[in-house]
Write a structure and sequence with these properties.
2 helices, single chain, mainly alpha
């Protein structure tokens, strides 16, 4: 992931958590959770759209063979 290993990422996150106040960490966790939720929602939307496209193309192929 961008040339950063998992261990390096954990060290960076640990160092950042030591330097921050607990109230800042709560705010950051809330924002990170919100962003994750939005990303999951978008991925689910794209997946539904792709499923619809695949179903339509499969139906067209089936009709063209008959």
């Amino acid at each position: 992931m961008l040339g950063v290993s998992t261990g390096q990422l954990l060290v960076i996150l640990g160092a950042c958590s030591v330097m921050m106040k607990p109230s800042d960490m709560i705010k950051m966790a809330r924002v990170a959770g919100r962003m994750t939720g939005r990303a999951v929602g978008r991925l689910m939307l794209y997946r539904r759209q792709m499923d619809d496209i695949f179903e339509q193309t499969a139906a067209k192929k089936k009709l063209s063979f008959e």
